[in-house]
Every structure is written in C-alpha cells, then in structure tokens.
Known about the structure:
Layout: H1 2-28, E1 34-41, E2 44-46, E3 50-54, E4 60-66, E5 70-74, E6 80-84, E7 87-93, E8 99-105, E9 110-117
Parallel strand pairs: 1-4, 3-9
Antiparallel strand pairs: 1-2, 4-7, 5-6, 5-8, 8-9
Amino acid sequence: MRLRAVGAVLCGVALLGTVTACGDDEKSGSDEVVTIDITIEGGKVDPSGERVEVGAGQPVDLVVTADEPGELHLHSDPEQQLEYDAGTTTLGIAIDRPGVVAVESHELGQIIVQLEVR
Length: 118
C-alpha cells in the first residue's frame, strides 16, 4: 500500500513538471512587442483590414503616421478610443481576451487591422 502511494506521488510530481514546462514555453513569446505601422494620408489608410495574430496580454504598438489628427476605435471589451496627432504617434495596447478585435477609423468608415488574439 505504501509503495503504491509513493508511486502515485512521483507520477504526480513528474506530470506537474511537464505541465509547468509547457506553460513556460507559451509565455516566453508573449512579452515581445508586436509593432503595426498604420499610415493615414489624404483620406486613405494602410493597412486595410489585414489580420495580425497576437497573444493574449501581448503588448502591441500601433504606430500611426497621419497627415491630420484623428481617433482609432478598438472593438474590444471594453471598447477603446485612441487619439493620435498629425505626424507619428505610438499607441501601446494589450488585449487580454482571446478573439478578434477590429481596429477601425469611424471617420474613414474602414477597418484598419484585425487583431486575432489567441
């Protein structure tokens, strides 16, 4: 009986080590900042609806170069409005919940990028 209990404990410790190692691997890539360059000029925007994969909680820099000030809308939970100036503005964000989050300009009526949060 005692030998069986020791064997169960050793199996549990080995399994815990395996699960912990997998968890560490997933977190290691999520600290890297994803940079998305956005250009808004003459009423046109680039990119135009592309999907970009990011990890939940991973930092994202939206680098907006615009010919006039404006606002980006993130259709996340909760929704966010991010203002940018004429010139170049870096907007740092992170989305914690998995799913697809649209970044759009209501002024231009266009989805700029879709963040596929995993």
